[in-house]
Write a structure and sequence with these properties.
The complex is a heterodimer of chains A (about 140) and B (about 425).
Chain A: E1 2-4, E2 6-7, E3 12-19, E4 53-56, H1 65-74, E5 81-84, H2 89-98, E6 102-104, H3 110-113, E7 119-123, E8 128-132
Parallel strand pairs in A: 3-4, 4-5, 5-6
Antiparallel strand pairs in A: 1-8, 2-6, 3-7, 7-8
Chain B: H1 5-11, H2 17-32, E1 38-40, E2 43-46, H3 50-65, E3 75-77, H4 94-110, E4 133-135, H5 138-148, H6 157-166, E5 168-170, E6 184-187, H7 198-212, E7 217-220, H8 228-241, E8 248-249, H9 259-262, E9 273-274, H10 277-287, E10 297-305, H11 307-317, E11 327-332, H12 334-342, H13 345-351, E12 354-358, H14 367-370, E13 377-380, H15 383-393, E14 396-399, H16 402-411
Parallel strand pairs in B: 2-3, 2-4, 6-7, 6-9, 7-8, 10-11, 10-13, 11-12, 13-14
Antiparallel strand pairs in B: 1-5
Helix pairs in contact in B: 2-6, 3-4, 5-8, 7-8, 7-10, 11-16
Chain lengths: ~140, ~425
């Protein structure tokens, strides 16, 4: 499946998707030392997003999140790509300062068509997301 | 986005790599929100300290400054993590001081006014009505939009720093008149506000924040002569439980002389949000998180205490000594501390056992080392401080009026509402 969206940054990223229907705060919500989501009660609590394509509706929480995301990135614990339903400043700036490929506002809600474990490729140069379902048998 | 010749030169790196980096951030950020142009800012305020920057963020700042990057717009800095004049007696770890010192040095090179205060609008960073500004501090950002009528989005440090370095910001959100209109009416006519002080307005703000969410509310039936501490209490607390960037107080906010003006000429939509005294009472108990009455610390200054608040605390103490097992801290700016010294307040407060601490705020900095010193149960007159001290630093917190906090410091036990 190929979807068109709006790019925030440039570049290409691919990897396994981690998907949540809950917004994410990078300050307090994600441990920069591990890439593990640590917000109590979050759908992804205890799961690492390091090296993944992180798919979530939008950002939330402290505007200091871009500092925490940058530290996670430098420590090798950040996602390799980001897909958001709605763009939000803290997440966008995090992607901008780490050159992380990021797209938002896809023609279809990404939460409806991407599942955790799917293989996803983000082409932020052209604003294109390609999804290969994990149980793909073609 | 349409760029002027100068903006194009900045993007092309003709004014240095730091300026080019700042332009990259602003252009990519502006594109997210379909901004059509970059507009001049007159004032910037930045916030980050070592615990959120971490060593990588400190390095990012140092890289930005390398090559002689300077701010082009007057820029102030939020509190830091300790009072440099009391650093040894507070046992701030050396590694921590080193990292915070590197941030200090980088900001100094950048030309930032090192105010270390969150009441920057009391010490010289005063925008005018209608000015476009970038303030990276949610409480004062709402104050600027709602009380002064200056225009700021809820920008983070990276965007605010980029605005300071380039002098411009993407035109979107609350910079545009059409986005400043109220979405929802809050009618407080059901409350008897005659006996309300700042703590009551904080509890009211707390109870309303969740109902408001990220919408822009307009309050009606607030007294138009409401004192500034109560206004600050209401606004700052609404940004803790909610995410409003602009709050119209009809009769107080410059853009809201009437309800119609607040809603941009149209009638307020239904439903209207209301509040009852039960809601406010419930908020008082919800803000407090403590179960133990014996107090280790009473701490004022979130936001940092104004000179008026220090005078009020001194008057309430009236020369009495605080309890031997309880500390009382007043967190403020260096300006106010200097004023306290000149006015003899520092001596009288010190005789009562009070410590006046400058350059830090009561919600974050001190708790890093206070916990190591065994402080667990604290009392505050700030709902915001209660929230952050409890959630970020695991403190047990009591919340109440300034008077209740001072009485509790004297007896060593919580004397306020529960």
């Amino acid at each position: 499946m190929k979807l068109k969206g709006k790019p925030v940054t440039k570049g290409i990223a691919e990897g396994e998707a981690v998907v949540t229907s809950m917004p994410i705060s990078f300050t307090g919500g994600m441990d920069p030392n591990t890439g593990i989501i640590r917000e109590p009660g979050h759908e992804l609590e205890g799961q690492s997003v390091a090296g993944k394509i992180l798919v979530f509706p939008t950002g939330k929480g402290s505007t200091t999140g871009s500092w925490q995301y940058y530290a996670a990135y430098k420590r090798g614990n950040a996602p390799v790509g980001i897909i958001n339903q709605t763009v939000e400043g803290v997440v966008a700036v995090s992607a901008i300062i780490t050159d992380t490929p990021m797209v938002h506002s896809l023609e279809v809600n990404p939460l409806d068509c991407i599942e955790t474990g799917d293989f996803v490729r983000i082409d932020a140069d052209h604003g294109i997301v390609e999804i290969e379902k994990k149980n793909h048998t073609e | 986005m349409d760029l002027t010749t100068e903006q194009q030169q900045m993007q092309d790196g003709k004014m240095g790599s730091g300026v080019a980096k700042a332009m990259d951030i602003l252009l990519a950020y502006g594109k997210c929100y379909d901004a059509r142009r970059l507009i001049p800012v007159t004032s910037v305020h930045i916030a980050g300290n070592f615990p959120v920057l971490m060593e990588e963020g400190v390095q990012w700042l140092e890289d930005l400054v390398e090559g002689g990057t300077k701010v082009r717009v007057f820029t102030t800095k939020n509190p830091e993590m300790y009072d440099p004049e009391q650093v040894d007696e507070m046992k701030v770890p050396a590694s921590f001081r080193e990292m915070q010192g590197r941030i200090h040095d980088a900001l100094k090179k950048l030309g930032v006014a090192l105010t270390y205060t969150c009441h920057h609008y009391l010490v010289g960073n005063v925008p005018r009505f209608g000015d476009h500004i970038a303030w990276a501090s949610s409480g004062s950002q709402v104050f600027a939009n709602s009380v002064i009528g200056a225009r700021s989005n809820r920008d983070g440090d990276h965007v605010a720093l980029a605005a300071a370095i380039t002098g411009v910001i993407p035109e979107w959100g609350l910079h545009l008149t059409e986005n400043r209109k109220a979405d929802v009416l809050i009618d407080v006519a059901g409350l008897d506000l005659s006996g309300y002080g700042p703590a009551d307005f904080k509890a009211l703000g707390w109870s309303l924040g969740k109902k408001v969410g990220a919408r822009i509310p307009a309050f009606v039936n607030l007294p138009s002569d409401l004192d500034i501490e109560s206004i600050k209490g209401l606004l700052y607390t609404l940004t803790v439980t909610g995410a409003a960037g602009m709050i119209h107080l009809v009769g107080i906010t410059p853009e809201a002389p009437t309800v119609e003006a607040a809603f941009g000429g149209s009638a307020p939509p239904e439903p209207v949000i209301t509040a009852t005294q039960d809601d406010v009472d419930h908020a008082f108990s919800e803000i407090s998180s403590a179960t133990t009455d014996k107090l280790d610390l009473v701490i004022f200054g979130c936001p940092q205490c104004s000179i008026q608040e220090v005078q009020e605390i001194a008057a309430l103490l009236d020369g009495k000594k605080i309890h031997a097992d309880t500390q009382l801290w007043i967190c403020t700016s260096r300006w106010v501390k200097t004023l306290c010294e000149r006015m003899g307040l520092l001596d009288s407060l010190s005789a009562s056992g009070v410590r006046v601490v400058s350059d830090v705020g009561a919600a974050d900095g001190p708790h890093l080392y206070l916990r190591k010193q065994g402080v667990r149960v604290i009392a505050v007159n700030s709902a915001r401080a209660s929230y952050y001290s409890h959630n970020l630093f695991g403190m047990q917190t009591w919340f109440g009026s300034t008077k209740a906090c001072v009485q509790s410091a004297i007896s060593g036990r919580w004397e306020g509402r529960r």
